[in-house]
């Protein structure tokens, strides 16, 4: 080996490490990066002379969670892996796509690829459960609908890395739709309209985008797995069109009366988990409209003790006009975070609306429904939580 290679390679490698470290530090790594496990830090260990056995383990756990430069090492590791092999430091949680598009890994990636599908027995049980729910709601005078919010992977597959390919196009949602097609249960297909819209309005390249471009047509955030208010409005429009076709006395959405505003924002959840977040990495989109409904608080309803979003557990709205409040149909929705961005557009078309964030359990919640009522009951589920419909939810079904 020549002297140039013998000395040059170590120097080049050391230089690369220094540059990457400096790059990580200048992008804010000295502040703590969000925990990869999204968990509370371990408390300081208790030193008991009469019981020393657990102290070394507890001290190590505390140190690992509270090490001052932990964020720096996490960010450095994330950026080094992304630069050298285009892989996330946590591939089971975050998948690095093209042009800063990040995707959920793990179970959700397996659902997209068709690797995790319903077995025949699981499909039979889920179908029977949904039909039983429909019967329960109909017995109480309501009409039951199932709506499934798509995975980001299905709407923007073109930015997934080359090694991610579907193994089976008959993925779990299609299995369920096919099974429900032979029943009288009404499901609302959100995959088709969202994918069609995304094809008509492809996102601009991040580097080529003009500084003042609003990205208002993006249906999902680049650095988060959630959909935007644009997707929420489109989903609400699809749901309302279905209800109108079924004879419910409501008006269709006039999308020309809605306005979108955005602001550049720091990289969101997926970027933070991988230690790759930076300033102005994404855009936060907000929806504006002359809303006809107002909040209708439920002070007597308390969220479960350990529910992390107590202000989102129950959200109720009603028409400001008391005549419309009584004359329009009422709505009950069981949802998780994906229900947030269609909450107001849907509510404006009903007299009273009640949205329940049921801790990702996706149960029927008849205790709440019996109290609130609802001419229309919508079970809104993110595709990534689809297996929560099983009696024993899939591991990683909540994230």
Descriptive labels:
alpha/beta; 2 domains; seven-stranded mixed sheet; two-stranded antiparallel ribbon; globular
Polypeptide structure, described:
- There is one protein chain.
- The protein is an alpha/beta fold and 399 residues long.
- The protein has 2 domains: 3-76, no CATH class; 109-389, no CATH class.
- The protein is built from 13 helices and 11 strands.
- Strands 4-3-11-9-10-8-7 form a 7-stranded mixed β-sheet, sandwiched between helices.
- The model has no long low-confidence stretch (mean pLDDT 87).
Q: Looking across the biggest beta sheet, what order are the strands in?
A: 4-3-11-9-10-8-7
The share of residues in helices is 25-40%
**How far apart are the first and last residues' alpha carbons, in Å?**
51 Å
Largest sheet: 7 strands, mixed
Number of domains: 2
Following the backbone from N to C, one meets helices and strands in this order, namely HHHEEHHEHHEHHEHEEEHEHEHE
Number of strands: 11
- Helix-strand category: alpha/beta
β-sheet strand percentage: 5-15%
How many helices? The count is 13
Structural shape: globular
Low-confidence stretches: none
Average the pLDDT over all residues and give the rounded result: 87
What value does the Rg take, in angstroms?
24 Å
């Amino acid at each position: 080996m020549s002297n140039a290679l013998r000395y040059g390679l170590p120097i080049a490698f050391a230089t690369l490490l220094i540059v990457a470290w400096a790059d990580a530090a200048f992008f804010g790594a000295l502040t703590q990066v969000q925990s990869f496990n999204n968990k509370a830090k371990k408390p300081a260990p208790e030193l008991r002379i009469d019981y020393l056995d657990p102290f070394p383990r507890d001290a190590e756990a505390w140190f690992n969670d509270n090490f001052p430069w932990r964020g720096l090492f996490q960010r450095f590791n994330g950026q080094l892996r992304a630069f050298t092999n285009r892989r996330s430091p946590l591939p089971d949680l975050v998948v690095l796509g093209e042009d800063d598009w990040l995707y959920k890994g793990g179970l959700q990636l397996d659902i997209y690829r068709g690797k995790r599908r319903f077995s025949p027995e699981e499909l039979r049980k889920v179908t029977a459960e949904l039909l039983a729910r429909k019967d329960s709601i109909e017995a109480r005078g309501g009409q039951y609908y199932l709506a499934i919010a798509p995975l980001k992977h299905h709407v923007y597959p073109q930015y997934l890395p080359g090694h991610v390919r579907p193994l089976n196009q008959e993925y779990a949602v299609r299995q369920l739709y096919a099974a429900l097609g032979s029943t009288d249960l009404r499901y609302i297909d959100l995959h088709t309209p969202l994918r069609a819209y995304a094809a008509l309005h492809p996102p601009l390249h991040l580097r080529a985008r003009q500084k003042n471009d609003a990205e208002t047509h993006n249906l999902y955030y680049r650095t988060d797995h959630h959909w935007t208010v644009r997707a929420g409005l489109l989903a609400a429009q699809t749901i309302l069109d279905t209800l109108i076709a079924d004879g419910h006395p409501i008006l269709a959405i006039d999308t020309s009366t809605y306005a979108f505003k955005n602001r550049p924002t720091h990289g969101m959840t997926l970027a933070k988990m991988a230690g790759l977040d930076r300033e102005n990495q994404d855009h936060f989109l907000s929806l504006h409209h002359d809303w006809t409904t107002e909040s209708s608080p439920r002070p007597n309803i308390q969220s479960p003790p350990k529910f992390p979003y107590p202000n989102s557990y129950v959200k109720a709205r009603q028409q400001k006009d008391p005549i419309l409040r009584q004359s329009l149909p009422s709505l009950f929705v069981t949802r998780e975070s994906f229900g947030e961005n269609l909450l107001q557009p849907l509510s404006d078309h009903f007299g009273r609306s009640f949205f329940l964030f049921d801790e990702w359990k996706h149960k029927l919640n008849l205790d709440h429904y019996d109290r609130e009522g609802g001419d229309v009951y919508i079970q809104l589920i993110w595709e990534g939580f689809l297996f929560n419909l099983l009696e024993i939810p899939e591991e990683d079904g909540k994230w």
